[in-house]
Amino acid sequence: MYLVEFFGLKIKPKITKGKGMWNPLPTHKRADGIAVIRDKDVNLFLIPSDNGYIAIDSGYKNSFSVENGLKMLGIKPESVKAVFLTHLDIDHAGGVDAKSKDVFPNAQVWLGAEEEKYLNGQYARKKIIGLRCKSPITLRSDYVSIYGIEEVTIDGITIGIVPCYGHTKGHIAYRFNNILFSGDCIISDGNNGYMFYDFWNADSNQLHESLKALKEYCETNGVEEIVTSHSGTLKTVQAFDGINEKINWRKKGFVFNKNAPYNAYKE
């Protein structure tokens, strides 16, 4: 097991327990038909298309929660035509990891060209005591590298490509109509949006600048709803209210969202 993967699976649940940091949505279908699947502390999303679904992210490796969620919602994994990855962290890209069970076997995987540098080792996901910790994710060779395009249409669904670097060096948010799937750009306390927790960011200063640009993008393109990966949804008018504040999640007695589960990893 990679060091980054060990930390994400074993350490992160312990150091965040009781702090209200993760508040994913329950598995359900929204009124607009978008499917939401909860996998421990994170959500992935499936947008209905002409002949199936387009996924935003894919959950953890070998996840029973994703398999059960698909069954609960009556969605066949083979019906997913494409998976757009916000970034390569294990909770977002594990479901399409080439060395694990592929939850969406017929899907074309899309990944930002800058994020691709984690695959070939140009970027390390974390540096600990001088040790470069690689991403634990590998992808099938037929994935599509996103470079220089603002939107793509697959199976009747147009997805806007919105780079938002900083959480990882190649992180991308995705727009569908007036909805933005923000990945790990933004975290919500149930009322307002904030910049994602510092420890997990590759470069928080870069993320702060990206969020200022993202706010302008949302205003220009009529985005009305921000759908986060770890903390539910926000109206766009609230989503950027706290981006200039640094969340001190290490503070004794800290609880970010009192309505969040005590331990998001126990479903």
Structure notes:
The model has no long low-confidence stretch (mean pLDDT 96). It is built from five helices and 17 strands. The two termini are 23 Å apart. It has 267 residues and is an alpha+beta fold. The strands form four sheets. It has a seven-stranded mixed beta sheet with strand order 1-2-3-4-5-6-9, with helices on one face. It has a six-stranded mixed beta sheet with strand order 10-11-12-13-16-17. A two-stranded antiparallel ribbon has the order 7-8. It has helices at 3-16, 64-72, 90-93, 204-220, 236-239, and strands at residues 28-29, 35-39, 42-48, 53-56, 80-84, 108-112, 126-128, 131-133, 144-146, 151-154, 157-163, 172-176, 179-183, 186-188, 193-195, 225-228, 233-235. Strand 10 and strand 11 (157-163) form a beta hairpin.
Highlighted features:
single chain; 267 residues; alpha+beta; 7-stranded mixed β-sheet; 6-stranded mixed β-sheet; 5 helices; globular
Chain-wise SSE layout:
Layout: H1 3-16, E1 28-29, E2 35-39, E3 42-48, E4 53-56, H2 64-72, E5 80-84, H3 90-93, E6 108-112, E7 126-128, E8 131-133, E9 144-146, E10 151-154, E11 157-163, E12 172-176, E13 179-183, E14 186-188, E15 193-195, H4 204-220, E16 225-228, E17 233-235, H5 236-239
Overall helicity: 10-25%
Please give the number of β-strands.
17
- Helix/strand order, N-terminal first: HEEEEHEHEEEEEEEEEEHEEH
- Termini separation: 23 Å
| Chain-averaged pLDDT | 96
User: Roughly how many Å is the radius of gyration?
Assistant: 17 Å
Question: Can you tell me the overall shape?
Answer: globular
Order of adjacent strands in the largest pleated sheet: 1-2-3-4-5-6-9
